[in-house]
Write a structure and sequence with these properties.
Helix content: over 70%
Distance between the termini: 48 Å
Order of helices and strands: HHEEEHHH
Number of strands: 3
Shape: elongated
Radius of gyration: 20 Å
Structural class: mainly alpha
Largest sheet: 3 strands, antiparallel
Number of domains: 1
Low-confidence stretches: none
Length: 181
């Protein structure tokens, strides 16, 4: 069993799984039932999405987690669709991969902002889909926008994998260089 953890890939996968399990337990057992994060986040996503739709000239209605364009039924942003689970997955990838802590924290904040913006864009697309192509709503919700969402997370992780490795390598190189007189 110890030989498995000599591989950097195995260590990475193990760390990702442990971070994700910890996040899942904290989220499912504490945050989700109490609504500490989900409720305000879902309201915020609905409001920001409504602002974008209004900017594009749509007659929009918002009630708590429900957002819609006049003439359509509306979309409820439920706990599974507000991006919290995706943020947990993203954080797991970033903190499991080698890198310096300062840039890691900054990149985490950047990544969370990107995930948030992708999710808002996703909700705007779903609102338009519900109005203009209602028969395609389920497909768009389940496959198209979800795929784009996870591709964005993968791209963010790939950026970190390249950037994080560079930060660690540069520090090691500086430590191994002789002092210049």
């Amino acid at each position: 069993m110890k030989n498995i953890f000599k591989s950097e890939i195995a260590k990475f996968i193990f760390k990702v799984l442990m971070i994700y399990v910890a996040w899942y337990v904290v989220y499912e057992l504490w945050l989700l039932p109490n609504g500490y994060i989900d409720e305000p986040l879902s309201h915020n996503i609905a409001s920001v999405s409504a602002g974008i739709l209004s900017f594009f000239g749509e007659d929009v209605f918002v009630y708590q987690r429900i957002l819609g364009i006049a003439g359509a039924g509306g979309i409820e942003i439920v706990d599974g669709c507000n991006g919290i689970a995706a943020i947990g997955l993203f954080i797991g990838f970033i903190y499991a991969y080698p890198g310096a802590w300062g840039p890691r924290v900054l990149f985490s904040i950047f990544g969370i902002a990107v995930i948030y913006l992708v999710n808002v864009s996703r909700i705007v697309v779903l609102a338009y889909t519900q109005l203009y192509w209602p028969q395609g709503f389920d497909f768009t919700h389940e496959y198209s926008t979800t795929t784009i969402f996870y591709i964005a997370i993968f791209v963010l992780w790939m950026i970190w994998a390249n950037y994080g490795e560079t930060v660690v390598s540069e520090k090691k190189e500086k430590q191994n260089q002789p002092a210049v007189a």
